[in-house]
Design a protein that fits this description.
alpha/beta; 2,3-Dihydroxybiphenyl 1,2-Dioxygenase, domain 1; 2 domains; 9-stranded mixed β-sheet; 19% helix; binds the ligand CC(C)c1ccc(C(=O)O)c(O)c1O; binds fe (ii) ion; Glyas_Bleomycin-R_OHBP_Dase; iron; VOC_core
Length: 302
């Protein structure tokens, strides 16, 4: 029984050290559209009709500010509110002015106790009149966010027993790939075991065409953007992937294809051997810079 029903991974808020440079990169190199002309506040970027899938904030240090999931309905939001309070978590409503800037409906935030990452849950976001242009890459969605965490077992347990996530697969002792139920995607969130603090591992964008992976490889190389892993195929979700670095050194991934799970009668999670071939069945290995940069912003209470 899940405590509340997710619709999908909604957006990720990232801290970047040079907002203009990052906006250029996320539009001209990654292929996102700006949702509104850049102003004094954060930059809103999208890869679909939602007002934003990535929000970039100027900051002294690169990293992840929060991850946001959309719930199925306002009724689910009420279930979530009650459930999170019953866990003893401090749950805060998104301030009205911020909701207005985010063009979102009802929403709340809390800090996941093992990683320190702020999770946001919301119900509605402005739907843009013009479709996402897919001018550079046929991105179909913000795919997933991955953290590296020291309290790997505890966080896996918290996400699955308290927050309504299900493990789709483990790579033994190393990674847990989690779906936000009843969303069918193999994972919208994942965690890796870290021995060196908690941090962002990567942000993924799913593409609808395998050619996008090859075309991106050539585009990134031409512009001297570091490609840090792949192209290859992940064993857990079966996707074809490519990782590269944003201007702050944070890892981004394009991937094509992903196993989907039915709401009822889903297969059990597999325990995959922690072998390099589990991460890439084609045999490439990650560069040292893969998945290293990205502080988790501690929540500031006002
Ligand atoms: C190497 C990383 C953590 C990884 C491994 C597997 C998948 C997948 O099965 O889709 C990923 O998306 C990853 O980012
Ligand atoms: Fe990934």
């Amino acid at each position: 029984m899940i405590p509340f029903r997710y619709r999908k991974l909604g957006y990720v808020a990232l801290n970047v050290t040079d907002l203009e440079r990052s906006v250029r990169f996320y539009t001209d190199m990654v292929g996102l559209d700006l949702s509104e002309p850049p102003g004094a506040g954060p930059a809103f970027l999208r890869c679909g009709t939602d007002h934003h899938h990535v929000v970039l904030y100027p900051a002294a240090e690169p990293g992840i500010k929060r991850v946001a999931f959309e719930l199925e309905s306002r009724a689910e939001m009420e279930h979530a509110r009650k459930h999170l309070a019953s866990l003893g978590l401090v749950v805060e409503d998104i301030p009205v002015e911020e909701r207005a800037a985010l063009r979102q409906g009802d929403g709340l935030r809390f800090v996941e106790p093992n990683s320190g990452l702020t999770f946001e849950l919301y119900t509605r976001v402005l739907q843009m009149a013009l479709p996402f242009r897919q001018s550079l890459t046929k991105i179909v969605r913000l795919g997933h966010v991955v953290l590296s965490v020291e309290r790997f077992d505890e966080m896996t347990d918290f996400l699955t027993t308290q927050l309504g996530f299900a493990v789709s697969d483990f790579v033994e002792g190393r990674f847990a790939f989690l779906r936000c139920q009843p969303n069918p995607l193999h994972h919208s969130f994942a965690i890796g075991r870290s021995a060196a603090g908690n941090h962002l591992n990567h942000v993924n964008f799913m593409v609808s065409d395998m050619d996008d992976i090859g075309i991106a490889m050539n585009r990134l190389q031409k512009h001297e953007v570091p490609v840090v892993f792949g192209p290859g195929r992940h064993q857990p979700s079966g996707s074809i992937f490519l990782y590269f670095l944003d201007p702050d050194g944070m890892s981004l991934e394009y991937s094509f294809g992903m196993e989907e799970f039915p709401e009822k009668g889903a297969r059990e999670p597999r325990m995959l051997e922690a072998h390099p071939l589990a991460l890439d069945t084609w045999g490439s290995v990650p560069q040292p810079a893969f998945g290293k940069v990205g502080a988790i912003e501690p929540e500031v209470r006002t």
